User: What shape does this take?
Amino acid sequence: MNGRELIERHLELWNAKDQAGWSALFTDDATLAGPGGLRGSGPEIVTTFYRLWQESFPDNRCRTLRIVDGGTSGVLEAVFEGTHTETLHAPGGDLTPTGRRVSVPFVNVCEFAGDRMRDFVLYFDQVDLLTQLGIVAATV
Assistant: This one.
């Protein structure tokens, strides 16, 4: 499986809500990092990341905008869309459900080890997410 195929499979399993399949795409010592201080390695951080988003936005879907396959690494540009109906257990503290729908662009940079992900770094605008949730006031 090349990098593009791995990223596409990753998104397919995410959107299918297949935690076991999604998690199996990571090496046992995979590292994950994201905004707000989410960092770690191994199966526990993979499960934590998955649950953080899938449980707090159960109707979420990720829509691909662009995939760049660099061989041993790749980049995904996409949009996360979902409704915040359950508590978001973020690294900085819990956010109670707002019932608001969000559409948040993000970029994911990955390194591959064969047909699995070894390093997974997520970038998105936290202020944009918090504004869409109504937690931060929108400014002009």
